[in-house]
Amino acid sequence: MTAPALLVVDGEKNTREALKKLLSADFDVYIAANLGEAQNYVRRQPF
User: What span, in angstroms and rounded, lies between the C-alpha atoms of 32 and 26?
Assistant: First the structure.
């Protein structure tokens, strides 16, 4: 079974990386630093 995808959007790099590390056991975690990066992910991947 494939893990659900989760998109974390935060301007703070340390926060993004920490959340990815914490959540990656249960989710396929993608991280974006801003709205533009997040929009690119959303166009390609359902969340």
Answer: 19
What predicted TM-score, i.e. pTM, was given to this entire model? 0.86
Distances (CA, A) of 11 to 2, 3, 4, 25, 37: 28, 25, 23, 23, 11
Structure tokens at 41: 């992910």
Which residue in the block uniquely carries the two structure tokens 């990386």? 17
Contact 41, 35 (CB under 8 A): no
By C-alpha distance, which of 34, 32, 30, 35 is closest to 45?
30
1, pLDDT greater than 80: no
